[in-house]
Amino acid sequence: MTGGCGYIGSHVTRQLSEAGYRVTVIDDLSRGFPGSLLHGERLVEGDIRDSALLDRAFASGKFSAVLHFAASIVVPDSVARPLEYYDNNTLGTLRLLQACQKHQVRQFVFSSTAAVYGEREGGPLTEDSPVAPSNPYGRSKLIDEWILGDVALATALRYVALRYFNVAGADPRARIGQRSVATHLIKVACEAALGKRPEVVIFGTDYRTPDGTGVRDYIHVEDLAGAHLDALGYLEKAGESRTFNCGYGRGYSVKEVLEEVRRQAGDFRIRIGPRRAGDVSQLVADSSALRKTLGWKPKYANLSDIIQHALAFEKTLPR
Ligand code: UFG
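Above: the input record for the complex with UFG. Below: its predicted structure, written as tokens.
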């Protein structure tokens, strides 16, 4: 697992350990926390662009699969600092795939993103919807998908690329959750509701959506983590390389999200601001392929649970 100490990675690490896998995590701890490894998983501290470090890590065991989470993930940062995103996300994936080839690891689960899709109106996005990323983050991940496709054609590697929609929520027992990157809407709103920040700014109310604010398909991190175990099971049963959308198929606007946080946690200040660079109006997943092919069964497919768990975890963090 790369990035196994991060927000999403730590949930997957935990579920893998609980399912009986033996897990080694590589993490540079730039945004991950070793304390997020709940079952004493082995941690190799370092950067995935460091091929010598990867060599040592791969040589230290016999690995059946790699799950690759380590990446920079904030859309507006990618607009401001594109080279950093291509370096960490694209070069990092390339180095990791080179190590997989060298050490003959042939199953690969890749963290991709809904940001590979661009601005589009109409119904939910299927995996065949046109890709047209609106920001360097999405492009860095789309290039990774293309590289993976080429490698899978040329070698014995098989992969599942999971295109995450908007991941939120936390471990229902509030042991792990989103600690860093306080730019995501639900995290920001929970912080405001708990008095950790003065207000939430709505980035644009002039989108072509029912209430003018951005619409996203929020997926609970526990359900997303489950999709990774399903993906691994699929690859273990010789499944062919595939890409799957990970969302519930239901979009919520920024205003609806803020309303639900207010309902659960009380009032906080909301200000209307301009659009944010790199944002699109709506991203909603058609995830029927994930359900049918991988047998994915979400447990928390509602905004209320997502926000309840995010709030409970936020309360465990220092102010
Ligand atoms: N938003 C606000 N105010 C805020 C934060 C966000 O109005 O303070 C709005 C955004 O404009 C957008 C929506 O809330 O309409 C969601 O924004 P986030 O920052 O929470 O998430 P993004 O949709 O920008 O991006 C996230 C991940 C990406 C992933 C994408 C997939 O950060 O990695 O979801 O949909 F690719």
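Notes for the reader.
The longest strand covers residues 107-113.
The chain is about 40% helix and 15% strand.
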